[in-house]
Request: fold
Amino acid sequence: MAFTPISLVTFKSTLTFVQGQDTQSYVVVRELNPFSINKYETSYALWYEVRTQAEKLGYNFQNPGQPGSLGRRAAIPNEENSYQPVTMISWYDAIIWCNALSELQNRNPCYVYEGKVLRDSSDTAACDLADCLWENDGFRLPSEAEWEYAARRTRRGFQTGNSVSGTTGNGDPDEELLYSWISENASHTHNVGTAGLPFDPENITAPGSGNANNAGIYDMSGNILEFCWDWYGVYTEEEPYGKKVGYERISRGGSFSEYTMFCYCGDRYSFDPNECYNYFGFRIACTALNE
Reply:
């Protein structure tokens, strides 16, 4: 199955938008720096390859991850599970994995504490106090603003915040099901990038064969809930990357699970960064430097 697990979409222009528009009682005009974000949620095969290589370099992960919502923890990737999204990991595991991927690809890791690159997701105190070096070229979680921008961006502007990513925003439930695996059409995760395809348990659907949003990005609504960098809090102009401290980290996009059924572009969730469920996962981003 030919598939590039890292396929970045880069945004360089029209980087100003209204964060929280149509869904939140508080909104803010946000101007972003150029950034790139992966077309796909992080697949289990990619997660597994990076995790196992990183552990040989001294990285430590609290949770080994599992393929999708029905897989086995620490399973060896195979044809059936490789392109399920990785789940059963915490926010801490995700940021450490981003550092590992950066190091393995000769990029400068973004997450540090007291100037040292973070390599242990069990050191939750250091992870909570981590700085993100946004100027570095390493992989990282998207900021909440970057995530919403990528979910809402269209060729001519932005779709509304109270709509499924990729739709026209008219509230047609049938159209929404063409762009998202949610509780109405899924009882479990599906291969990344396959929303909108008829589910056939006898065949393995290829990643990227479903419907992308207007920016060419898949699964921004549904399938799994995606970690963002920010601590939960009210949007302010002075804090483009969220609060400096907090108790819960932001997640976006909703999932197949009835526990996270709100999947509009502007919907927000927040969880303790130590929690992990079979509907939690992430996609990677990076700052676009001279690209």
Observations:
- The two ends are 29 Å apart (CA to CA).
- Residues 58 and 220 are 33 Å apart (CA to CA).
